[in-house]
């Protein structure tokens, strides 16, 4: 039986980078980008340790739009204010990517993506 107490170490290094890959996609489904108030987040249905599904969501911190490219930054995410067509892409069990079309300094839209790292399933709840 899989251990559903999946957690990911979250260590903030210079530049706001996360230390561990995301693991929640192994025990969660219906994964999607979500606006949580004015914040950018991820919503999913995740299994608890007992195997019950639980609707959960979490704010994704520290992503900004730098001239049409998604980058890591400190503090709250701000990319959602200048990007559209925002989506979550799962690459097997190894990668979770935030994709978007983001405005650059000339007002043009650029296709960009960034890996969401350090996100896990803690007994049915998304957690960094």
Low-confidence stretches: 1-18
Mean pLDDT: 86
Q: From the 3D structure, determine the CATH topology.
A: HIV-inactivating Protein, Cyanovirin-n
Biggest sheet strand order reads 1-2-3
Biggest pleated sheet? 3 strands, antiparallel
Radius of gyration: 15 Å
Structural class: mainly beta
Number of DSSP helices? 0
State the share of residues found in helices, binned by percent: under 10%
**Overall form:** elongated
How many domain units? 1
Order of helices and strands: EEEEEEEEEE
Strand element count: 10
Please write the CATH class name: Mainly Beta
The CATH superfamily turns out to be Cyanovirin-N
- The first-to-last residue Cα distance is 23 Å
Oligomer: single chain
Strand content: over 45%
The CATH architecture category equals Roll
Signal peptide: 1-19
Keywords: Signal
Helix-strand blueprint:
Blueprint: E1 28-36, E2 39-47, E3 53-59, E4 63-66, E5 69-72, E6 83-91, E7 95-103, E8 109-115, E9 120-122, E10 125-127
Antiparallel strand pairs: 1-2, 2-3, 4-5, 6-7, 7-8, 9-10
Signal peptide: 1-19
InterPro entries: Cyanovirin-N_sf
Keywords: Signal
